[in-house]
Specification:
The protein is mostly helical and 218 residues long. Helix content is 68%, strand content 2%. The longest helix has 31 residues. It is globular and about 60 Å long.
Length: 218
């Protein structure tokens, strides 16, 4: 085999490595580009349904599922969807999976479905999902889109769970319905009210930014 042939083979090998999915696509959504704590996206469900850990996790997982499935489909069809109708196509794809999630939650728990209310349907216009479809899935392979969706989805779920756990713990003295504090504990009712969502989000943003700043200086 000639040196020229070997060089071409090496170039093809390294090119395939560069185009292959990287774990960085997954990790960035958990920390470096967290949808809530860094990009400050999806604030409507973040503040509205994070009054308990159960509601927060349910909304986070529902959003993660829609994000994953829509990323896969958008990436698969990226070469077939005309640019002029891409946004409308993405919304149609997202709405399809949101409908599936809506019926699934209603079948699993009617009480949970009532607690989440209209915010399940509002996943369709969640800027986290539409933004990843437009900015990432429509320009990358299915493998990379899956990792990106998993990272962003779990990052969003993690953020909601952080808010929901703190608000439920201080507001009800419990986590996932399990009592943590004794009966003598005076509940902070404000934490499960809308104002509590803003207070808790501000505290978590402060902690998150302080941790990033400390890491950057070390």
């Amino acid at each position: 085999m000639s040196n020229q042939t070997k060089n071409k083979g090496n170039e093809g090998f390294f090119a395939s490595l560069q185009n292959s999915p990287s774990t960085d696509e997954f990790i960035k959504g958990l920390w470096r580009e967290n949808p809530v704590f860094v990009q400050v996206l999806g604030m409507c469900p973040t503040l509205a349904v994070s009054n308990t850990a159960e509601n927060a996790m349910a909304m986070g997982l529902a959003t993660a599922f829609v994000l994953l499935m829509s990323n896969i489909l958008v990436s698969s069809l990226r070469n077939f969807v005309p640019k002029q109708v891409r946004i409308a196509s993405y919304i149609l794809i997202i709405a399809t999976f949101v409908t599936m999630v809506d019926y699934a939650i209603q079948a699993i728990s009617v009480e949970l479905h009532k607690a989440l209310g209209a915010f399940i349907s509002l996943i369709v216009v969640n800027c986290v999902i539409l933004g990843r479809a437009e900015a990432f899935a429509s320009k990358n392979t299915i493998g990379k889109s899956i990792l990106d969706a998993l990272g962003m989805g779990l990052g969003f779920t993690f953020a909601l769970l952080c808010l929901g756990s703190v608000r439920e713990l201080l507001g009800n003295g419990s986590i996932f319905g399990l009592t943590v504090f004794p009966k003598s504990y005076q509940e902070w009712i404000v934490m499960i009210l809308p104002a509590g969502g803003f207070f808790t989000l501000a505290i978590w943003l402060l902690i998150f930014n302080a941790a990033k700043a400390r890491k950057a200086t070390t």
